[in-house]
Amino acid sequence: MTETARMLGLTEPLHQRVSQKFMTAFKAKDILFSETSLAYLQARGGASFQLRYCPALKKKPQGDGFVPKKKPLRPHFDPFEDPPAELLIAQIPAHNASHNLVLNKYPVIHNHFILATKANKPQTDLLEADDIGLTHACLRAWHDQRHSGDPSRLFAFFNSGEHSGASQMHRHLQFLPVEDMAGPNSREWRLLIDRMTVPAHPDLPLFQDPSLPILHFSTPLEPDASAADLHGRYVLLVQAALSAAEFPGQPLEQSLAIERNGKTLISYNLAMTTERMAICPRRQEAVDIPGAGPESSVAINGTILAGTLMVKDETEWDVLRETHSLLDDMLGAIGFSLTSWKQNERSSKA
């Protein structure tokens, strides 16, 4: 048992706890797993994306999202308020638990699980230090099993704001095992956040992947970073995303207000691994696919920072595989133009 697992209050390795809970829930039909077809797309700059096709999710119940109905027929269901025992993995940390680890009820990837606050905190507010710290602790606990011969990795993501792809208002971050995401032809795909290693600022620890044609930033993480240090890196990413999206070409303004009454002033997707944290500011949640019909609409969430997209309609699946140029159009529609302060520095010296 690792020190991280003990800190979380787990009596067995996190990987083992999640996989056993997942298989038990799957056999009992307490979760509804949907198979997906998998293809690979490539942006013009070279970034590789998985495209998943899951028609079963067209029937999945949808959350009320961020737009209240004028005449609600029933109260909005909160799946994280009192998670059922068959989905509850653990309450963490060991003392004075503030968060629940729960299985995703409608997974398309094996062992998809969620970190949710026990109190109903808003998804649109800035994450707090314990949210970030516990997320990183889960990533480390999973990663630490490498020492026992299991080379597994975990990818975490968070959707915040009306354009981010979030479907539940109760604050939660999500986890996907990278090996379960990879698929049979994994050599064609690499976790996108791992590629964000090109400096984007002359002085600050901000990096990008120039092959991803929309605004994004990453920052490296120290293995033993405290929750406060991790939260500081998160705030830096939000500042960078808001500054570059709202004031392109201008110097990064670290005194820029990033929240009002707790609510973040920009929609964004956040991602984390043990080594890196990344952000992608959003201006649109979904995009229409030309040639896929009048009702075509593909919603994109934080898995974009892993390099993964999903469609639920067969026509969308066919059109995107046949017309690869649409990938860049989709990315351009949901995000902001790629820029960096390193690029601006070079331009000013020219």
Automatic annotation (TrEMBL):
<dbReference type="Pfam" id="PF19327">
    <property type="entry name" value="Ap4A_phos_N"/>
</dbReference>
<dbReference type="Pfam" id="PF09830">
    <property type="entry name" value="ATP_transf"/>
</dbReference>
<protein>
    <submittedName>
        <fullName>Uncharacterized protein</fullName>
    </submittedName>
</protein>
<dbReference type="InterPro" id="IPR036265">
    <property type="entry name" value="HIT-like_sf"/>
</dbReference>
<dbReference type="InterPro" id="IPR019200">
    <property type="entry name" value="ATP_adenylylTrfase_C"/>
</dbReference>
<feature type="domain" description="ATP adenylyltransferase C-terminal">
    <location>
        <begin position="210"/>
        <end position="336"/>
    </location>
</feature>
<dbReference type="InterPro" id="IPR009163">
    <property type="entry name" value="Ap4A_phos1/2"/>
</dbReference>
<dbReference type="GO" id="GO:0003877">
    <property type="term" value="F:ATP:ADP adenylyltransferase activity"/>
</dbReference>
<dbReference type="InterPro" id="IPR045759">
    <property type="entry name" value="Ap4A_phos1/2_N"/>
</dbReference>
<dbReference type="GO" id="GO:0005524">
    <property type="term" value="F:ATP binding"/>
</dbReference>
<dbReference type="InterPro" id="IPR043171">
    <property type="entry name" value="Ap4A_phos1/2-like"/>
</dbReference>
<feature type="domain" description="Ap4A phosphorylase 1/2 N-terminal">
    <location>
        <begin position="12"/>
        <end position="179"/>
    </location>
</feature>
<dbReference type="GO" id="GO:0009117">
    <property type="term" value="P:nucleotide metabolic process"/>
</dbReference>
